[in-house]
Design brief:
mainly alpha, Non-ribosomal Peptide Synthetase Peptidyl Carrier Protein, Chain A, 4 helices
């Protein structure tokens, strides 16, 4: 499931275990360097190319997961 993978990536990159599906990336201490690492993990692990703009528009595990699921498969 995409949300489980996104949650695992966020926990790893933010170095936190206490992340809920509706927690805001920035409120959790997220910043641009972490965001770039998460973008790379999305591409490598999920095959999803997520732009920085979309990361700002979808700052929770739940919302970015739904966005990723709406994308066509990455080639």
């Amino acid at each position: 499931m995409t949300a489980d993978s996104v949650h695992a990536i966020w926990r790893r990159e933010l170095q936190r275990d206490d992340i809920a599906a509706d927690d805001d990336f920035f409120a959790l201490g997220g910043q641009s360097v972490i965001m770039v690492r998460i973008q790379g993990a999305f591409l490598e692990e999920l095959g999803a190319e997520v732009t920085m703009d979309q990361m700002f528009l979808h700052p929770t595990v739940a919302s970015i997961s739904a966005y990723i699921e709406s994308l066509p498969p990455h080639r």
